[in-house]
Predict the 3D structure of the following.
Amino acid sequence: MKFKNLLSNLFSTKSASSARVLESPWSLFTHYGDPRWSKYSFDTLANRGYSQNAIVYRCCDLRASFIDSLNWHVYKGDKLVEDMYHPLVKLLKRPNTRPDSNSFFYSLMVSVDLAGNAYVHMVTPSEREQAPRELLLLRPDHVDLDYYTSGQGGVPRAYRYTPGYYDGQPRGQRLFPIDPVTGYSDILHWMNHNPRDAFCGQATLSAAYRNMETFNEGVDHVKKLLENKGVMPGIYTTDQNISDEEQQQIRMMVESFQPGGERYGQSQILHAGLEYKSTSASPQEMELIQNEIEQARFIAQAMGVPEQLVGIPDSQTYANYQEARLAFYESTMVPVAVNLEQKLTDSLAPRFGDDLWICFDRNSIPAVEERRSRTLESIKDITFMTINEKRKLVGLPEFPEGGDELDQPKKAPAF
């Protein structure tokens, strides 16, 4: 029984795994319990993901930087609005007067990736005017939907914005009404598709939530291992009878060699028949590095980012970095930009007049520019194509006159 007491005294802290002790002979069997995940919330994705996970941050940064780099144009009918002082053109160039207004679209994309929703307050100077003067991005975790209790089929009636709390009580709440028929509101709500909720989006990162947690646990394990000088956790055993006083001496000795102890990092000499046995798998047995690479790969795939762009080792899906970037823009980000383009046209443009619509400049995307240059280089000497056919191939508008003629190289004058 003294040996059993020794075990309980030395290892009295609670553990994630459970153990059972059998008699004659002594044996110790362990098994893993259910995995423990952090509570899923915007704060978890923002703190454990964006702030503490290098892969998540890089994926979010690539996606947000693309949206932030787009050039937005305003059209009235089929004609480009070239007046740089047009109120809608000015608003898209500088959404608000805050110092960080240049990163408005960057923050907009990050909100959707981490919360699934972006709430933009379209600030108007008075209730009589519809055209907003500023676009203010609200924190997604401070906005809730206020639903009708009856008679409207579960349609939200307002956005409830709570800027802060004092002593656990909300302060300064504000309601932004929603027209139940037209959906008109002073809040522009851009969200991801959510199969479980028609009015609240699903975070882009949510599909990789468990991979993010697993990646972080691997990083934490390596940190703990380094703090312990690479010594794996274990158990001390002995066949001899040990008194309570000896148990206490052994406990003090073991604790003195742990991180923070006065003998931490020194060589440990076992006596009184003690034997140390490791109870954890080594990093090699756990294939820790390979597991981290796999989790990073899953995170990048869930967010639509090619592995080469986030620096995952041995990622050769595309021939080179430029091809990977082009695939990222075309297959992942252009559809996202088109979705945002449609949302701006539906919710923002009508407030400035009829027949206005907003679109981004497809030709200003860097990777598309590089591909167009390569295409132009390959077709410039072809003589069996018309000028307009070549322009269409590289994404340029056709010439109304003279564009249907074959593009023949001009001959140098003879001397």
Q: What stands out?
A: The two ends are 113 Å apart (CA to CA). Residues 383-415 form one domain. DSSP finds twelve helices and 15 strands in the chain. Confidence is low (pLDDT under 50) at residues 6-32.
